[in-house]
Automatic annotation (TrEMBL):
One of its GO terms (biological process) is amino acid transport. It is a multi-pass membrane protein. The chain crosses the membrane at residues 12-28, 60-82, 94-114, 145-167, 187-208, 220-247, 259-279. GO terms for molecular function: transmembrane transporter activity. It comes from the Bacteria. The keyword Membrane applies. It is found in: Cell membrane. The keyword Nucleus does not apply. This is Branched-chain amino acid transport system permease protein. Belongs to the binding-protein-dependent transport system permease family. LivHM subfamily. One of its GO terms (cellular component) is plasma membrane. Keywords: Amino-acid transport, Cell membrane, Membrane, Transmembrane, Transmembrane helix, Transport.
């Protein structure tokens, strides 16, 4: 039982890493209707900015806030001067552009700060506590609670605020939104800015657990996309629950399903995706889209 609890706790900790990046992907999709593959690279860039500010002598929390502000501005500028050229065209072209942007950002990070592992300071203490016989780090508990808080904020943003409703309207039908008097261009910039700011928070939460490198988000991005498919693009709560589910099932399968083991546990989320896409294509918590002709 002790081993089982430890595996579940570790799975929730890993799932929280996937969840924070998945939330940023959902946010930009709900605000612009796009899937942003560059989200992981933007989180890495903001983490490096935070790290350099801390190295310069600023307190960690101040460095994170400045990185969040800078990320919001950079995200808005990227939408205005780069992505806007592709938003009205073929969606596949826009996806390819975000993949290219991911490669560019990680390459720039490696060029500026090398590919060596860097130690990123943690917001939370590093000691562990015992919960039902399992050793749990305070950092994992803090990350878990931070993910819950971010999830609730994002959910409230889209369901309970005028800004969130306007962002959703622009993402669904920008032409009708413009006819209704909504500032479509500024809302698209705000959506990308908010997603980039959330990516900055993701980088600050994840970097202490993974060590800071230009490619630290590559694997997490794959799992985050799996969580988005499983949970549904329209549900912040759904993608977080899906990310935790992936983390837990991956750990349990590695130990208790012998033909999978640790070598094949990466296949677990893809098996889940295959099953969910057959049974419920909109995701476990997503809404079915009805198109009237």
């Amino acid at each position: 039982m002790g081993q089982f609890i430890q595996l579940v706790v570790d799975g929730l900790s890993n799932g929280s890493i996937y969840a924070v990046l998945a939330l940023a992907i959902v946010l930009v999709n709900q605000a612009t209707g796009m899937i942003n593959f560059a989200q992981g690279g933007m989180a890495v860039l903001s983490a490096y900015v935070t790290w350099r500010l801390v190295e310069a002598g600023l307190p960690l929390i101040v460095a994170i806030l400045l990185a969040v502000l800078a990320s919001f501005i950079v995200g808005g500028l990227l939408e205005r001067f780069l992505m806007r050229r592709f938003e009205r065209g073929d969606p596949d072209t826009a996806v390819v552009v975000t993949i290219g942007l991911l490669t560019l950002i990680t390459g720039v990070c490696g060029w500026l700060w090398t590919y060596n592992n860097q130690q990123f300071p943690s917001l939370f203490p590093l000691h562990t506590v015992r919960i039902f016989g399992a050793a749990v780090s305070v950092r994992s508990i803090g990350t878990f609670l931070a993910i819950v808080a971010i999830m609730l904020v994002v959910q409230a943003l889209f369901l309970g605020t005028k800004l969130g409703l306007a962002l959703r309207a622009v993402a669904i039908n920008p032409e009708s939104a413009a006819f209704s008097g909504l500032p479509v261009g500024r809302l698209l910039m705000a959506g990308w800015g908010l997603a980039a700011a959330l990516g900055a928070v993701a980088g600050a939460l994840v970097a202490p657990q993974l060590t800071l490198t230009p490619g630290m988000m590559d694997t997490a991005l794959v799992y985050a996309l799996a969580a988005v498919i499983l949970g549904g693009l329209s549900s912040p709560v759904g993608v977080v629950c899906a990310a935790w589910l992936i983390g837990v099932l991956e750990n349990l399968a590695a130990v208790y399903v012998h033909f999978i083991g640790y070598d094949l546990k990466v296949a677990v989320p893809f098996i889940l995706i295959f099953v969910v896409l057959i049974v419920r294509p909109q995701g476990l918590f997503g809404r079915k889209v009805v198109v009237r002709v």
